[in-house]
Amino acid sequence: MKPVGIFYGSTTGKTEKIVQHIKDQFHNTCIDIYNVKNASEKDLEKYDNIILGTSTWGKAELQDDFKKFLPVLQNANLKGKKIAIFGVGDSSKYPVSFADSIGIIFELLEGKGVIFVGEFSIKGYEFESSLSIFNNSFVGLPIDEDSDCELNKARITMWTDMLKVNLN
Ligand SMILES: Cc1cc2nc3c(=O)[nH]c(=O)nc-3n(C[C@H](O)[C@H](O)[C@H](O)COP(=O)(O)O)c2cc1C
Fold first, then answer.
1. Closest ligand 1 atom, CA of 55?
2. 132 lines ligand 1 (CB under 6 A)
3. What's the predicted TM-score (pTM) here?
4. Are 9 and 15 in contact, with CB atoms under 8 Å apart?
5. Which of 21-25, 28-32, 145-149 shows the lowest per-residue confidence on average (mean pLDDT)?
6. 7 in helix, strand or coil?
7. Pairing state of beta strands 31-35 and 49-57?
8. Which of 11, 12, 94 maximizes ligand 1 atoms within 8 Å of its Cβ, making it the mutation to test the pocket?
9. What average pLDDT does this structure show over 149-159?
10. CA 1 / ligand 1 centre spacing (Å)
11. 61 CA to middle of ligand 1, Å?
12. Which residues contact 83 (CB under 8 A, 6 or more apart)?
């Protein structure tokens, strides 16, 4: 598989921890990790395979660093690139906006000629609504480090196994 660039934003370190778990699943692949605080359009454009991940804060709002990164994401030439998104949230405390970050990023990139990979079943998640559901599936992987901690390992393995087949 070609190298993968993972770009993440994290306030309390939970998304950062998940990035490491995701990286650990790819044994024979070059994985480069970027905190979006220090990432540029050039960094994004280096990769044919990109994973984007961040948490949801406020109501339907992206994590602060990722919010500031949006112009970079929008201006980068991402045409033809495979993109997978994951989002970290809390389904017990924020059931009506669970892991909205995935859907917000997805919508922002729609129409830019990217190829989305890594949609994930809603089965097993308990929440009321999320901006991250299209055609009855999550358009990326939701991770709940606050309420569903024990399920995350299996979800990450399932998701990365899919990515190994679908990334370039
Ligand atoms: C003020 C506040 C608002 C939040 N809003 C949401 C939300 O709308 N939806 C959600 O799924 N999680 C929400 N969360 C939960 C965070 O996304 C969650 O704790 C996440 O693990 C933080 O990850 P990070 O440390 O990588 O930023 C919120 C947390 C706080 C403290």
1. 17
2. no
3. 0.98
4. yes
5. 145-149
6. strand
7. unpaired
8. 94
9. 94
10. 32
11. 9
12. 50, 51, 52, 109, 114, 115, 116, 117
| Cβ atoms 61, 67 nearer than 8 A | yes
For residue 150, the model assigns a pLDDT of 86
Q: How many angstroms separate the CA atoms of 58 and 66, rounded?
A: 13
Q: Are 10 and 63 in contact (CB under 8 A)?
A: yes
Three-class SS of residue 121? strand
β-sheet bridge partners, residue 133: 138
Q: What are 121's two structure tokens?
A: 């079943």
Residues shown for the chain:
168
Q: How far is the CA of 8 from the centre of ligand 1 (A)?
A: 14
Residue 74 C-beta-side C-alpha neighbours within 13 Å: 9
Q: Which domains does the chain have, with CATH numbers?
A: 4-166 (3.40.50.360)
